[in-house]
């Protein structure tokens, strides 16, 4: 028998959109939720949760849709916070900024830059919401830097019953540590306060190395720069090492449209498409790309967020593995051996990053320094 609805619930549901098609950035997952909402206030969210509770519906919150997984997908109610992106407070003395959860990280970067501030570490991608970034363990790289969520000092969230909870390391600590990488399961994050620092430039120096040479000197490389990472080019035996350090040097970064876009994007995309008909040619494609773009040392200086961020190029399937940092050499050697023996044809690059341990309950870095290996397959 169809459940009777009171007039209040009917009014709330009338604000939802039917037939909305959600697709993630990579176009690897999509769904059509029963209703799609774009609330503008905290009370709007409370009303949606009330209706969902009355009708026994599940609720998922979506951010920028940049996750390579189907974490946002639902056949219930979907909430987008893109209309809740206000800047609530800037505390210059503490270098803290409080924003609504729907603000995109790339928008936050520009905001902070306008106020002479910056986040201490960023991921390779900033086209995601603030809440989504901390809720899914987004991270950058650097032996002494934690995941993105470790820069959050407090947040407000709403639980399923409509209650708003303020939490931090001083108040409601257990809820705070559960929500930081909570995958949206603890509640809907409404706002969060970021611990920033004075804006800074980064000098990025890249150089090619043989994979085995890099593995033999991994620990010294991690200690030698603030934000070390490397890109591994399967089937070539080479890696591109990134040594990234804070600097007082002025900006010196001149992109090339021809190499970065005409060749590095459009021509590369065409070659990858052609290689899909002859997968064995991928080893030659990887070699060619490495020789054209990454076989020579290069250095640039720019604002921190412009160096941290990386062009992901094309739509792609992605899997990322988190392993204990002290197992990095063992795992990569095993992967190299498997590639050599299996005949599997892998796209490049595989991004390898390093993150400091934390105490966040669902973090892959919980109580262990961690290596993240990000493997892609272009679509």
Automatic annotation (TrEMBL):
Pfam hit, one: ALO
Domain of life: Eukaryota
GO process terms (BP): L-ascorbic acid biosynthetic process
EC number annotated for this UniProt entry: 1.1.3.8
InterPro entries (UniProt xref): ALO_C (IPR007173), FAD-bd_PCMH (IPR016166), FAD-bd_PCMH-like_sf (IPR036318), FAD-bd_PCMH_sub1 (IPR016167), FAD-bd_PCMH_sub2 (IPR016169), FAD_lactone_oxidase-like (IPR010031), Oxid_FAD_bind_N (IPR006094), Oxy_OxRdtase_FAD_BS (IPR006093)
Boundaries of every FAD-binding PCMH-type domain copy: 29-199
Pathway recorded for this protein: Cofactor biosynthesis; L-ascorbate biosynthesis via UDP-alpha-D-glucuronate pathway; L-ascorbate from UDP-alpha-D-glucuronate: step 4/4
TM stretches of this protein: 175-194
Reactions it catalyzes: L-gulono-1,4-lactone + O2 = L-ascorbate + H2O2 + H(+)
Keyword Endoplasmic reticulum among UniProt keywords: yes
Cofactor(s) in the UniProt record: FAD
Keyword Flavoprotein listed: yes
SUPFAM superfamilies, alphabetized: FAD-binding/transporter-associated domain-like
GO terms assigned for molecular function: D-arabinono-1,4-lactone oxidase activity; FAD binding; L-gulonolactone oxidase activity
Entry membrane topology: Single-pass membrane protein
Keyword terms of this UniProt record: Ascorbate biosynthesis, Endoplasmic reticulum, FAD, Flavoprotein, Membrane, Microsome, Oxidoreductase, Transmembrane, Transmembrane helix
Compartments reported by the entry: Microsome membrane; Endoplasmic reticulum membrane
GO annotation, cellular component aspect: endoplasmic reticulum membrane
NCBIfam families: FAD_lactone_ox (TIGR01678)
Family: Belongs to the oxygen-dependent FAD-linked oxidoreductase family.
Record protein name field: L-gulonolactone oxidase
Organism: Stylophora pistillata
Lineage: Eukaryota, Metazoa, Cnidaria, Anthozoa, Hexacorallia
Name of encoding gene: GULO
């Amino acid at each position: 028998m169809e459940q009777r609805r009171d007039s209040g619930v009917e009014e709330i549901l009338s604000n939802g959109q039917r037939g909305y098609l959600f697709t993630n950035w990579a176009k690897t997952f999509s769904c059509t939720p029963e209703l799609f909402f774009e609330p503008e206030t905290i009370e709007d969210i409370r009303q949606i949760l009330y209706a969902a509770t009355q009708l026994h519906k599940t609720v998922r919150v979506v951010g920028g849709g940049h996750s390579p997984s189907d974490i946002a997908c639902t056949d219930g109610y979907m909430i987008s916070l893109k209309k809740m992106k206000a800047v609530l407070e800037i505390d210059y003395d503490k270098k803290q900024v409080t924003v609504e959860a729907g603000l995109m990280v790339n928008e936050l970067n520009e905001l902070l830059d306008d106020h002479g501030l910056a986040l201490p570490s960023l991921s390779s991608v900033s086209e995601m919401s603030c809440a989504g970034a901390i809720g899914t363990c987004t991270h950058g790289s650097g032996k002494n830097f934690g995941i993105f969520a470790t820069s959050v000092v407090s947040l407000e969230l709403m639980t399923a019953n409509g209650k708003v909870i303020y939490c931090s390391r001083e108040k409601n600590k257990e809820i705070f540590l559960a929500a930081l990488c909570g995958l949206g399961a603890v509640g809907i994050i409404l706002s969060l306060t970021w611990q920033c620092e004075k804006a800074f430039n980064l000098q990025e120096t890249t150089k090619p190395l043989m994979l085995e040479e890099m593995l033999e000197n991994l620990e010294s490389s991690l200690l030698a720069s603030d934000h070390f990472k490397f890109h591994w080019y399967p089937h070539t035996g080479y890696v591109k090492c990134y040594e990234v350090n804070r600097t007082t040097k002025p900006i010196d970064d001149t992109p090339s449209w021809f190499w970065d876009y005409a060749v590095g994007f459009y021509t590369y995309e065409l070659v990858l498409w052609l290689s899909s008909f002859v997968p064995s040619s991928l080893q030659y494609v990887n070699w060619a790309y490495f020789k054209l773009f990454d076989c020579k040392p290069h250095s640039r200086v720019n604002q921190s967020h412009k160096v941290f961020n990386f062009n992901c190029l094309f739509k792609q399937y992605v899997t990322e593995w988190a392993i204990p940092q002290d197992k990095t050499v063992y795992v990569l050697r095993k992967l190299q051996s498997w590639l050599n023996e299996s005949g599997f044809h892998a796209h490049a690059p595989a991004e390898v990053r390093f993150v400091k341990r934390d105490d966040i309950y669902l973090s892959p870095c919980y109580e262990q320094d961690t290596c993240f290996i990000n493997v892609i397959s272009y679509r």
